[in-house]
Amino acid sequence: LAPRQVVEKLRQHNIVGSVTPYATKYVRLAPSLINSPKEIETTLVEIRNLRSA
Predict the structure, then answer these.
(1) 17-48: pLDDT as tens digits
(2) Cα 10 vs. chain centroid, distance in angstroms?
(3) Composition of the chain by helix, strand, coil, percent to 5
(4) Under a CB-based contact definition with an 8 Å cutoff, are residues 3 and 27 in contact?
C-alpha cells in the first residue's frame, strides 16, 4: 500500500497519522505520553492487519 492509503485505513480505526513531506514518502505516527498502552497495542494490531491484507 502507498503511505497515503495506509494513513486513510488507519484513520478508519481512529488512528491519526500523516505522510512525510519528503521525496520518499513514509507513514508517520507520533505516539506520546498521553497515549495509553491499549491505544499503542491497537495501533500495532492494525498495522499488522494491513501487512497481512
Answers:
(1) 999 999 999 999 999 999 999 999 999 999 99
(2) 5
(3) 45, 10, 45
(4) yes
